[in-house]
Amino acid sequence: MKHKEVISNWQHTLLVIGFLFGNSMIYSMGIRYAERDTFLAEIISGFLGAIILLAIALTVNLFPNKTPYQIMQKKLGAIGAKLLLIPFFLFSVYVSVTILDDMQVFMITLVMEETPPWVFIFTLALATAWVVRQGLEVLARCAELIIPILLALFVVFFFLIFPEINFEEQLPLFTSNLVDICKATAVIASFPYLETILLLFVAPRVTKPHKLYKSHILAISIATFCLSWRSVLAITAYGLNEGTRYIFTMFQVSRLISFGDFFERVEILFLAFFFFMIFIKIALCFYVSANCLASILSLKNYKPLIMPIAIFTSALALNNYGNFQEKLIFQFISWPLIVFVMVCLFVFFCLLTCYTSIKS
């Protein structure tokens, strides 16, 4: 399969930031375990994500302008490479399903309770698929336009919420035991930091592979810093007991913002932030899914697969969970195990890449 698409390192950095924010911005899953020390789990998870991204950068530099499939094929043969791609394809599809499901649950629970779920799911999926079908460069230009505005919006959001928070609620620190911090780290790392293994299929498209290390460190640093505030803002704004009960913590915090009598309902801006970030993440997942499937089927062009994948993931998202409680159980228990298995496959691929590079 031939690839002619290229993106700049700056565009790739913004895509990584958008992927990390994605649907994770509305949640603060680990807060139920580590409470006031959740920010420690966030930092540890960010460190694990940095290792993944640096490993991707190393792989791309060892085999510049080579796709993961071409690298696998060199050592495992065509059949072995396709078999190894299947888990990555399934993983990217299910991440897409999770994003669509999170979006429709969020909208139905807090914004438009009477609207059927399929309206949100199919609208987002088909609109995103249309953009991805135009090519990775178009998606990268969208990120180049949108992500800086959204990051500026996050800074404004922080300064507006500052008068509403009480940092004394964050004290005392370091009261959680090691087991609770590890539990929080497992949940937070699996969503979204370790999901970055999918960016293995995007990174080879950059124009300057030797600068990927810098791009990835910058992206993971910005994302980790911003996401670490999820639990802190929830606790300092609502207190420990109430702050740990909320599911969509950042949206609840945004509702507290009021600037005089003329600047209220700021959660609408947060909705825009949320929608554009999940657009970037699900677009990248569609891109990865289509590329994996195209390689498995030995197709030269991945673009005709985008729309069928979007429709397929939409159908899955409509019947993903019986209720929200099932989703939480899956997110806390099953998803970290699935991500762990995928990380093991990623490590195997990295070791295979290093071995192939040394032999050649």
Percent in strands: under 5%
- State the order of secondary-structure elements, H for helix, E for strand: HHHHHHHHHHHHHH
How many distinct helices?
14
Shape: globular
Radius of gyration: 20 Å
Main sheet record: none
Helix content: over 70%
What value does the average pLDDT take? 90
Distance between the termini: 23 Å
The unreliable regions are none
Question: Which structural category do the helix and sheet elements fall into?
Answer: mainly alpha
Count of DSSP strands: 0
Explain this structure.
With about 350 residues, this protein is mostly helical. The relative contact order is 0.22. It is built from 14 helices and no strands.
Short overview:
The chain is globular.
Give a quick set of tags describing it:
mainly alpha; single chain; 14 helices; 360 residues; 0% strand
Q: How is the secondary structure organized here?
A:
Layout (H helix, E strand, L loop, with lengths): L8 H13 L9 H4 L3 H25 L5 H43 L6 H17 L2 H26 L16 H13 L21 H16 L1 H10 L1 H4 L5 H6 L12 H30 L9 H13 L5 H36 L1
